């Protein structure tokens, strides 16, 4: 493909959150496999999280680098070092979240300076940067949008905005059907993101969504981390019924083929990766359930306690990732979220990772037989790729839509019973529900049926990114379009 003097140079600019930065780095790596030169833009505080895998790639001669622009913390009235969404630890920080989003709008100027200096052939920028289309247009550069979610959710979001079915029910718990969306998909107002429930009048969120959608429409198109076989009805709907130009190129996590690639992905893990694999090696195939709620969701101590008791009562082997550090500024934090003597009792049976887990490395191990997930799209896709059934535990953002595709369209998971969208901290789930759901994906005929469906999707995912596969071909045709455009 493109090489030598015709080599394309593409800039990738992810939103400052791990769920956006991780797949964007994967995507940039994927483009380099087609001879493209790729640069990922980020801020000083975020650079260490992505430079580990980029550094390794560039040592191998791959043309991939990081370009750093300053984050305006002080200007935006944010604490020093507050450069990533994972700095949010609870709802009380809502004001800071708004400031954080506002601060990202100030990245337009430094982005434009970079574009002017390097004149890349294309800018792939996150949907949270609606101003990026105009920034790129100033220099005649096409802008692609990356939403970081499924075709299904992209369609669902559009469906709600177009038909407002949630305004035609009389209570928050009354189900409504999503009009003109393939499948009989039902939701309740309780499951919608808070901002989406607000009247579509003039408020910050509706203004942002409008700007984002306008920017989508004026952009060159949308790149989607998904594969056609997984959600073809929604991929078709998005393109044909909604008239969007889109390329599906995923699962992008599959560009990480070996141990090192997977271990270097995202933040530095809080466990020794080899030790973690050793622990998994000691377990039978499909005998461990993996529990992780992504990079932002943050549960209360009471909920963590309930999860611990549920896991113990389920009798299953587990790896449980908790977004808490044992040490807080050098002080031993009192762990009020674990039952007395829990870890001693669970020795050999359960592993708690406090902080960051090497998720793909764990999911891809044959001992892992199920995944309890908050339904972030990356996590779902990584679970699908690994071929494991899922317990769905949506918390915020578009995760309730993602839950629908898992349980009702793909039929590879079961819900833990969350009824209500809840910013960051999540709706409370009792231990009995946790035991029931975990056991249902790990044991019995239904579990086997879901596992075999999940495995089939996992195989399709791998074929999609191989030569001639749907995602591989879509990526080639995107690169060809961009090359032709340049000449
Ligand atoms: N992740 C990880 N280790 C963790 C937590 C998350 O590697 O301990 C990765 C996970 O593999 C995924 C991303 O972080 O690629 C999280 O994205 P997702 O869309 O699942 O959720 P979000 O963090 O955006 O809510």
From TrEMBL:
PROSITE patterns named in the record: UDPGT
Signal sequence bounds: 1-19
Keywords: Glycosyltransferase, Signal, Transferase
GO MF annotations in UniProt: UDP-glucosyltransferase activity
Enzyme Commission (EC) number: 2.4.1.-
InterPro entries the record matches: UDP_glucos_trans (IPR002213), UDP_glycos_trans_CS (IPR035595)
Sections of the chain in a coiled coil: none
Keyword Plastid included in the entry's annotation: no
Source organism superkingdom: Eukaryota
A Pfam short name: UDPGT
Keyword Repressor assigned: no
Family: Belongs to the UDP-glycosyltransferase family.
Name used for this protein in its record: Glycosyltransferase
């Amino acid at each position: 493909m493109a090489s030598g003097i015709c080599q394309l140079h593409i800039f990738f600019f992810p939103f400052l959150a791990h769920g956006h930065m991780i797949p964007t780095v994967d995507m940039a790596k994927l483009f380099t496999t087609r001879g493209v030169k790729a640069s990922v833009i980020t801020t000083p505080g975020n650079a260490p999280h992505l430079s580990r895998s980029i550094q390794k790639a560039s040592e191998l001669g791959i043309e991939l680098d990081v370009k750093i622009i300053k984050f305006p913390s002080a200007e935006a009235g944010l604490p020093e070092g507050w450069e990533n969404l994972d700095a949010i630890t609870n709802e009380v920080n809502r004001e800071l979240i708004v400031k954080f989003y506002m601060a990202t709008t100030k990245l337009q100027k430094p982005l434009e300076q970079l574009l002017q200096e390097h004149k890349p052939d294309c800018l792939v920028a996150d949907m949270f940067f609606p101003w990026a289309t105009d920034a790129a247009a100033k220099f005649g550069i096409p802008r692609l949008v990356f939403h970081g979610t499924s075709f299904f959710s992209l369609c669902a979001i559009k469906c709600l905005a177009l038909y407002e079915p949630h305004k035609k029910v009389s209570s928050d718990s009354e189900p409504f059907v999503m009009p003109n969306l393939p499948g009989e998909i039902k939701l309740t107002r309780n499951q919608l993101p808070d901002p989406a429930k607000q009247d579509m009048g003039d408020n910050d969120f509706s203004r942002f969504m409008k700007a984002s959608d306008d920017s989508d429409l004026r952009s060159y198109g949308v790149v989607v981390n998904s594969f056609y076989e997984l959600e073809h009805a929604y991929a078709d709907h998005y393109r044909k019924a909604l008239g969007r130009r889109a390329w599906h190129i995923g699962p992008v996590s599959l560009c990480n083929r070996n141990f090192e690639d997977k271990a270097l992905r995202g933040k530095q893990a809080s466990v020794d990766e080899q030790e973690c694999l050793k622990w998994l090696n000691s377990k039978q195939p499909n005998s461990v359930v993996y529990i992780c709620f992504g990079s932002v969701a943050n549960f209360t101590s009471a909920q963590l306690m309930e999860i611990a008791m549920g896991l113990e009562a389920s009798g299953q082997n587990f790896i449980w990732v908790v977004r808490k550090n044992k040490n807080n500024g050098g002080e031993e934090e009192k762990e009020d979220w674990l039952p007395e003597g829990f870890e001693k009792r669970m020795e050999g049976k359960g592993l708690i990772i406090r902080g960051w887990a090497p998720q793909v490395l764990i999911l891809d191990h044959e001992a892992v037989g199920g995944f309890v997930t908050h339904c972030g799209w990356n996590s779902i896709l990584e679970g699908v790729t690994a071929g494991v059934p899922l317990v769905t535990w949506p918390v915020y953002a578009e995760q309730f839509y993602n839950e629908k595709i898992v349980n009702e369209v793909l039929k590879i998971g079961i819900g833990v019973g969350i009824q209500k969208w809840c910013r960051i901290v999540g709706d409370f789930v009792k231990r009995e529900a946790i035991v029931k759901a975990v056991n249902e994906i790990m044991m019995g005929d239904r579990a086997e049926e879901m596992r075999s469906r999940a495995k089939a999707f996992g195989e399709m995912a791998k074929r999609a990114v191989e030569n001639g596969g749907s995602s591989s071909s879509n990526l080639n045709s995107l690169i060809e379009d961009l090359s032709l455009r340049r000449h």
